[in-house]
């Protein structure tokens, strides 16, 4: 089970100490199966990488530039740089990155360059509230998956993350039945499109906390969670993991 902490634009060099408790949690046999990935901002990625060396915790970035090679892109960081400092994962296609300019085409290039650098990609997709109201959820999801994975042939290192935009940071979550159905259809779509060659991993993200986890954990189609707000406090993050395995 994946528990991915997406810290977004939060945290400073001192924040790294807060994960000590989480490192301790991973030593308890009950939680051995929890695959914990921290995705802090770039500025403290290396601090996190050092702190978690020789632990079971993995590190990921939250985005990258689409260009694979070094180049004149002021303010940017590419997948090669992320890999070099010790991260193994990267979140791509997050709705907040889409809002600030990520297009399907750019996401596709980012995925390809990240895979080439041997990063595991946590690829986010999901519908907005309006799209949901217009019953376009599946159409949107299928389109986002298809365009992001255009000409991507090896899917082994992609983890899918369904994040309904209306649920991110809002405290609103889909009903269990609805989420179960969506998760089922996403996996069905992936299997038919990529001919069932892979054991696809599907995460859910959007207002996951120590309460909502009780319902989500019953959905067997899900292989983990992408957690924003509630991951910044180690206590809240640990509570989610504890409640999952209760
Ligand atoms: P949230 O964010 O848990 O704060 O809703 C999830 C995400 O943006 O990945």
Describe the structure.
By secondary structure, the protein is of the alpha/beta class. Helices cover 36% and strands 15% of the residues. It is built from ten helices and eight strands. It has helices at 20-25, 45-51, 79-84, 95-99, 104-116, 129-133, 137-148, 176-193, 213-216, 234-245; strands spanning 2-6, 35-39, 58-61, 89-92, 120-125, 158-162, 201-205, 224-227. The longest helix is centred in the last third of the chain and has 18 residues, at 176-193. The radius of gyration is 17 Å and the shape is globular. The structure holds 2-phosphoglycolic acid.
Task: Quickly list its features.
36% helix; binds 2-phosphoglycolic acid; 246 residues; alpha/beta; globular; 8 strands; TIM Barrel
Lay out the secondary structure.
Blueprint: E1 2-6, H1 20-25, E2 35-39, H2 45-51, E3 58-61, H3 79-84, E4 89-92, H4 95-99, H5 104-116, E5 120-125, H6 129-133, H7 137-148, E6 158-162, H8 176-193, E7 201-205, H9 213-216, E8 224-227, H10 234-245
Parallel strand pairs: 1-2, 1-8, 2-3, 3-4, 4-5, 5-6, 6-7, 7-8
Bound molecules: 2-phosphoglycolic acid (PGA).
2-phosphoglycolic acid (PGA) binds at residues 6, 163, 168-169, 205-208, 226-230.
Beta-strand segment tally: 8
| Ligands, ions, cofactors | 2-phosphoglycolic acid
Measured by DSSP, the beta-strand proportion falls in 15-25%
Report the CATH C-level class.
Alpha Beta
Element order: H for helix, E for strand:
EHEHEHEHHEHHEHEHEH
Strand order of the largest sheet: 1-2-3-4-5-6-7-8
Characterize the main sheet. 8 strands, parallel, barrel
Rg, rounded, reads 17 Å
Give the overall silhouette: globular
- Helix content class: 25-40%
> What structural category do the secondary elements indicate?
alpha/beta
Could you report the average pLDDT, rounded to the nearest whole number? 96
Label the CATH architecture.
Alpha-Beta Barrel
- The figure for the number of domains is 1
Question: In the CATH hierarchy, what is the superfamily?
Answer: Aldolase class I
